[in-house]
């Protein structure tokens, strides 16, 4: 079995070993003999971009970007093995920082990955993702990019805070001359959906070497379609979903104009179940497959030769991104359970109970409170974001007596406006529908004069009060001054000593301000975040490259950063580069990294949030037994029996309420936080046995400690008895239990405790993470009778990933090879030039994983999966992922380039992930399941 699992990668490695372009021979224009360039990983300049240093750096050239067929920076970075999944604007609709995309290296997170533009920091996205701040890579124009440099080891000794996992440096075009335009269109060949379109115009004037100046202007625009629902593409979904979940594709009894359980459908219904005893609703019409997006980004840069030894430069980048999410209209009914949220104004937890119709309601003939199942199709559900971001800088650079120097000043920042609708105003509900807290409902509940009318057209005034807009105004701003110099400081017998030194001074402010209704806790089920703070900080750094011997070089670097609230922090680094022969290079490094607490963590702020994906060890097993019994009861009933639908719906909801549920949490800032720190060790080699082939193997190990976090909610549940009183709050008894609804069920299934209500916590230096792995690349470039050809393998093997449990006071299990953390990820690509045609073929492969997570994750281990999830042992894993892409470029005339890129050439489905789909799942967890084969075509024309 194991050899079969590895077979695709073995084949890929054999092919790559025959044809690959070496990392040390990166295709790039040769620089002038006297011109030195700075590449990520060192401030000491070198003669060639492609020269391998003591740190592993992946360089993606402009030619490789063009050959990839990618249209955005996010798509491009996803092709690197070192870049692991993080927040995306496509799947981030439920995050605190929706509408943006962050990048992560080696599974260490977007907050530990520093993103630079032309070797300087970018503005962070105005909205923090809970406590995480990050650069939004959706704001970057891909067509302005000359190359991408990825430093795969830590960079805090050179670049400061956040560079724990590494650094991604986006380098824009230099000395570009001419005018060009490009148009791109992509859509699915299966459904003609998933469309996106992009366009760009780039213009540059002035040859710096001849004219003494150069100015570049670039505008990128991008649009992604989002105006279609899962109903439009549901027939294309994996049949395994329907086979596993009886709810998949089904209609909902939470409908419009609704159902009074025990009395029948409300008049006006157009869709019924088989027995016509329930009014049904097609919820899939409002399940959006992906959000729409509109982006524009503009870059203007210029440089001017002031004198032989002095150059002026300036740069400005601006972007506007708009993202629109929409989802299902709100369902209402007491079987859905209570909504719990934290009120930031009172620091208390509030609970909303969906009640039925009182005995006096004209739609209720039962003589007692009756269950209402309803769909608020007029709630205006949607989430819209608009963000403006910018960076403007100007500076001087030059040389003096053999020393290169540079100084610049600038300002950067951004503003985000987020507005959401679709949830109740608590005060509006009470005013227009009624008070849900009373033991006996008022007679006019759901029937107030001038209030909301079930199944009727309601006025805009009523709807605006019941479903108001809510959201955030967020802004960030940073001013900065920096300077550096580099050159030679004496000589050793083996060669000159290269040194560099520099400084940075910065002042930053951040404000995330909720609307008044969020701040007052008036939106049912919604927490909020508030931050409004500023600070100044600075740093100095130095670096030396010492040739200890002809083939041995030592890099020593150190940086001191000073932030308000804690002492100066020193980040040192030592690295060795040993090249005993031209064909072999050995390298190693030891570095300390750090991340300073950001303003959302250490300055006055409050977060009333929701912890998701929890499994209650005191209730989950009992809930599984109850679920199995309910499903057995439903299976024994004929389809025409309305109780069959009700039993299935209750069964589907129970496991989610106890084994995959959410709980409210009130989190406070902490002004006494210390920086997160890390130790990074790397060992590597580069081997080039012949000129055409090179391979590099780099081992990395990162141990990060003092991680700023709250206690993991699952850890709290797993070690509940050890927590201080008030940390984890449960209901006082089982009297209103939403899962075990009567004393008989409590007695039969014996849950270990009442329902969890909420959690209390604050940020602290708690966590530790240990990660290690191997990055392996093979590259080649060679000639064939048809023309130049090449191939490349970029792969990463995860050896260890562990998180420390503070509640258990021990390291968790090694997650490498488990759910969400595959051991192997690899991309093999090759290209062939044939006259005016260039063909490219690539394969992405990811190793299978079980569905099991960490030690506390017992609900998806193989035994539980088979016994309680209705799956086979083979289904209790995510199979290997394989995707083939094809790219074709044609240059019919010198000024025109036509490109076709086929994503998922063989139209393979992604593997079925039963855990992500969930028991009783109703929508695919991965939109790629219905995308099928995608075709992207583009045309680029160079006017001059």
TrEMBL record:
Domain of life: Bacteria
Record keywords, A-Z: Cell outer membrane, Membrane, Receptor, Signal, TonB box, Transmembrane, Transmembrane beta strand, Transport
Keyword Membrane: yes
Pfam families hit by this protein: Plug (PF07715), TonB_dep_Rec_b-barrel (PF00593)
Keyword Membrane: yes
GO CC terms: cell outer membrane
Signal peptide extent: 1-25
Major subcellular site: membrane
PANTHER family, alphabetized: PTHR47234, TONB-DEPENDENT RECEPTOR
Full protein name: TonB-dependent receptor
InterPro entries cross-referenced by the UniProt entry: Beta-barrel_TonB (IPR000531), Beta-barrel_TonB_sf (IPR036942), Plug_dom (IPR012910), Plug_dom_sf (IPR037066), TonB-dep_rcpt-like (IPR039426)
Boundaries of every TonB-dependent receptor plug domain copy: 52-167
Record's subcellular location: Cell outer membrane
UniProt topology in membrane: Multi-pass membrane protein
Similarity annotation: Belongs to the TonB-dependent receptor family.
Ranges of residues in domain TonB-dependent receptor-like beta-barrel: 381-905
């Amino acid at each position: 079995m194991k050899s079969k699992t590895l077979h695709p990668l073995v084949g890929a490695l054999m092919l790559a070993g025959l044809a690959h372009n070496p990392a040390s021979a990166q295709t790039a224009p040769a620089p002038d003999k006297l011109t030195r360039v700075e590449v990520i990983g060192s401030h000491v300049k070198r003669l060639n971009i492609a020269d391998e240093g003591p740190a592993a750096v992946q360089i993606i050239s402009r030619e490789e970007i063009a050959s990839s067929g990618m249209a955005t920076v996010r798509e491009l970075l996803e092709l690197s093995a070192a870049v692991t999944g993080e927040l995306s604007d496509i799947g981030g609709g439920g995050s605190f920082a929706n509408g943006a995309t962050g990048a992560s290296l080696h599974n260490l997170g977007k907050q530990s990955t520093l993103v630079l533009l032309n070797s300087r920091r970018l503005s962070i996205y105005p909205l923090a993702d809970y406590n995480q701040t990050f650069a939004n890579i959706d704001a970057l124009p891909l067509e302005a990019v000359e190359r991408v440099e990825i430093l795969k080891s830590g960079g805090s000794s050179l670049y400061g805070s956040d560079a724990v996992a590494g650094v991604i440096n986006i380098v824009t075009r230099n000395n570009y001359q001419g005018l060009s335009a490009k148009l791109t269109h992509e859509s699915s060949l299966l459904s003609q959906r998933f469309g996106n379109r992009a366009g760009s115009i780039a213009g540059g004037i002035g040859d710096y070497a001849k004219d003494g100046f150069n100015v570049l202007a670039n505008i990128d625009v991008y649009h992604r379609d989002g105006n279609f629902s899962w109903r439009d593409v549901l027939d294309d979904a994996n049949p395994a979903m329907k086979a596993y979940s009886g709810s998949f594709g089904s209609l909902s009894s939470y409908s419009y104009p609704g159902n009074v359980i025990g009395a029948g459908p409300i008049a006006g219904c157009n869709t019924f179940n088989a027995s016509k005893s329930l009014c049904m609703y097609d919820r899939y019409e409002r399940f959006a497959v992906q959000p729409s997006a509109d982006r524009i980004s503009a870059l203007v840069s210029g440089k001017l030769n002031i004198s032989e030894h002095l150059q002026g430069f300036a740069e400005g980048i601006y972007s506007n991104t708009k993202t629109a999410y929409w989802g299902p209209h709100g369902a209402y009914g007491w079987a859905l359970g209570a909504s719990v949220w934290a009120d930031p104004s009172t620091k208390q937890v509030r609970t909303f109970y969906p009640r039925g119709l009182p005995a006096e309601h004209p739609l209720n003939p039962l003589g007692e409170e009756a269950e209402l199942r309803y769909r608020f199709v007029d709630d205006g559900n949607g989430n819209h974001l608009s963000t403006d971001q910018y960076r403007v800088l100007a500076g001087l650079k030059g040389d003096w007596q053999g020393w290169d120097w540079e100084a610049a000043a600038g300002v950067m920042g951004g503003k985000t406006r987020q507005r959401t609708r679709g949830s109740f105003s608590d005060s509006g509900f009470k005013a227009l529908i009624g008070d849900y807290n009373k033991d006996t409902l008022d007679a006019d509940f759901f029937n107030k004069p001038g209030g909301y009318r079930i199944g009727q057209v309601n006025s805009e005034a009523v709807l605006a009060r019941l479903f108001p807009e809510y959201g955030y105004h967020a802004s960030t701003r940073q001013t900065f001054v920096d300077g550096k110099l580099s050159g030679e400081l004496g000589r050793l017998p083996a060669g000159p000593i290269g040194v560099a030194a520099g400084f940075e001074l910065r002042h930053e402010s951040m404000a995330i301000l909720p609307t008044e209704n969020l701040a007052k806790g008036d939106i049912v089920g919604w927490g909020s975040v508030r931050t409004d703070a500023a600070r100044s900080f600075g740093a100095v750094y130095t670096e030396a490259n010492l040739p200890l011997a002809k083939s041995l070089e030592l890099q020593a670097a150190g940086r001191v950063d000073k932030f308000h609230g804690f002492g100066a922090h020193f980040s040192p680094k030592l690295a060795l580069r040993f090249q005993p022969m031209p064909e072999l290079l050995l390298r190693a490094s030891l570095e300390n990294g750090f991340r300073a607490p950001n303003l959302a963590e250490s300055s006055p702020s409050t977060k009333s949030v929701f912890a998701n994906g929890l499994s209650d060890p005191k209730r989950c097993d009992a809930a599984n037994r109850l679920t199995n019994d309910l499903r057995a009861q439903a299976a024994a009933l004929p389809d025409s029996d309305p109780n069959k639908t009700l039993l299935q719906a209750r069964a589907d909801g129970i496991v989610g309420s106890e084994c995959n549920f959410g709980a409210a949490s009130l989190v406070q800032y902490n002004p006494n936080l210390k920086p997160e720190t890390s130790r990074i060790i790397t060992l590597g080699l580069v081997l080039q046995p012949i000129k055409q082939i090179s391979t590099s193997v780099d081992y990395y190990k990162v141990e990060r400690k003092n991680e700023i976090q709250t206690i993991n909610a699952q850890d709290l549940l797993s070690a509940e008895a050890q927590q201080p009183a008030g940390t984890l709050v449960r209901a006082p008894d089982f009297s209103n239990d939403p899962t075990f609804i009567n004393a008989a069920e409590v007695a039969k299934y014996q849950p270990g405790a009442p329902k969890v209500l909420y959690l209390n916590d604050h940020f602290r230096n708690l966590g530790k993470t240990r990660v290690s792995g191997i990055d392996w690349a093979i590259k080649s470039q060679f000639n064939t009778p048809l023309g130049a050809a090449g191939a490349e393998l970029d792969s990463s093997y995860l050896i260890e990933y562990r998180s420390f449990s503070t509640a258990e006071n021990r390291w968790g299990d090694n997650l490498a090879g488990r759910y969400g953390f595959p051991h192997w990820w690899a991309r093999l690509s090759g290209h062939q030039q044939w006259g005016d045609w260039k063909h490219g073929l690539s394969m992405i492969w990811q190793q299978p994983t079980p569905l099991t997570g960490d030690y506390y994750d017992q609900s998806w281990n193989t035994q539980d999966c088979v016994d309680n999830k209705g799956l086979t042992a083979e289904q209790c894993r995510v199979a290997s992922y394989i995707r083939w892409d094809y790219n074709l470029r044609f240059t019919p005339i010198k000024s025109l380039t036509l490109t076709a890129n086929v994503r998922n050439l063989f139209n393979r489905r992604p593997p079925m992930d039963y855990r992500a789909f969930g028991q009783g799942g109703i929508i695919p967890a991965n939109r790629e399941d219905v995308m099928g084969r995608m075709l992207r075509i583009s045309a680029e024309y160079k006017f001059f």
